[in-house]
Amino acid sequence: MEARIKILYIDEEPNNLRAFKAYFRPKLNYEINICDSEKEGLKRIAETKYHIVVLNQSRKERNIIELLEAIGQLDRDILRIVVTAHRDTSLVDKALDEGKIYSYHTKPWNLSEVERAIETAYNVYQMILKKKDV
Question: By the 8 A CB rule, do 41 and 35 touch?
């Protein structure tokens, strides 16, 4: 069996966390971890190697750019995907332009599209690691 894609999903909305976990539960090639706070998410990233972090833009503790920078300081290789319900995506667009995120998706989200983004991001992640080994 192929290696499982380790994903951390950070969102303060319990319904979103449940929906994400339920969607990926039957899929054997994913290891899904969820948390409902930025603080817990950063702690987990510091302690565990994840391939991808998916996070909701609606952060209460700091803006999305600051959170992405904090994640990048803990793990330079982790690929970041943002989901947002905000109509103003200027911060997310800025993060994308600056290479702080791999992609973003607007809510209401289509989890099959998010899954395709995760698969593609994981392929990019593997290429980045191979390039480092050369």
Answer: yes
Domains detected in the chain: 5-133 (3.40.50.2300)
Write out the two tokens for 81: 């995907």
User: CA 68 to CA 95: how far, in whole Å?
Assistant: 8
Report the amino acid identity of residue 26. Answer: P
Which of 126, 130, 127, 134 lies closest to 51, judged by CA? 126
Residue 55 backbone dihedrals phi, psi, to 5 degrees: -140, 150
> For the residues 73-80, what does the mean pLDDT come to?
95
Which tokens sit at 106? 């607007």
- Residue 103 φ then ψ, to 5°: -160, 170
pTM: 0.90
Instruction: Identify the pLDDT of residue 134.
Output: 60
> How many residues comprise the chain?
134
For 50-65, how does the pLDDT look when each residue is reduced to its tens digit (9 = 90+)? 999 999 887 566 788 8
